[in-house]
Amino acid sequence: MKTPYVALLGSLICANALAAPMQGIHFKHKDWETACDNTGTCRVAGYHHESEYDKRISVLFTRMAGSSAVSGELSYAGESVQQKTINLLINQKIIGKLILQHDSYRLSPQIAQMVIAATKGRDTVQIQVGKEIFTLSNAGAAAVWLKADEFQQFGKLKPQPKPLIKKAQTVSGSLKTSGASFAKINSAEQNQIRQLLRSKLDSETCHFLHENTEAIALYRLNSQNLLAETICWRGAYNEGLLAVVLDNSRKTIRQVVTLHATDYNNGEIHGGHKSRGIGDCWSGETHVWDGKRFIQTQEYSTGMCRGFAGGAWHLPTLVSDVK
């Protein structure tokens, strides 16, 4: 028999577990991937085989938590001019026509389920564009759908509301920065802040910060807090800014926000990086100032690096409502 204390402790543990926000996931296997966000919505994307770069094709399926309904859309890229209507084939048999809507071809619920079933098995899914045939790979589809099913607890997961983040007003503009239109921080102040940042982040984490004396930008957030930004790391075609919140003395770090910022504007820190030089796959994040600290409100990728300019899809793992 449980004592009242044990029962109370157990109930508190359960309550804390239930209160914990849902964490999104991103899982890839062969030519398929899934991104499930913190509301419980899963997006599953499949692509052509990498060897068929000249005939690029991708599908995206979206399923909300607690629902069996799946929406689907398709995109392709190749030598053919984008057509208003294309044929969809399973095992070389036309099963329907797809109509261009905005920048993708929508799948009816029935056709979406047929494509899912075909790609999980050994059937061949293709589109016909004029005389060209584009083939969707089956490799990885079954494993990726299983991961999405597991995340959504095989239909039992209830949809979660988006976190509501109230954005606070900030002091506009830059307090001191290296830009030509602003006053520069003197070298002694630059060095003081740089040494503080180096003491917090080692050379493996922020190699550029330790190897260089890049200028540090300061932004006034409110009467008690400042935002400091400087280059943390640099690669072949990307760089990431270290963003930290400092107190007014500039001797205390109150928050290390991110190592992957690319710009700051009016209380929002954005980061966007491409995964390879041609820019066909990106990832990004956003942090918003709530008056006390920066809260991460968005995290996403644009899918696998498969030759779609700017990325094939928007695949978030973290979403929020910012007011």
TrEMBL record:
Residues 1-19 form the signal peptide. Keywords: Signal. This is DUF1176 domain-containing protein.
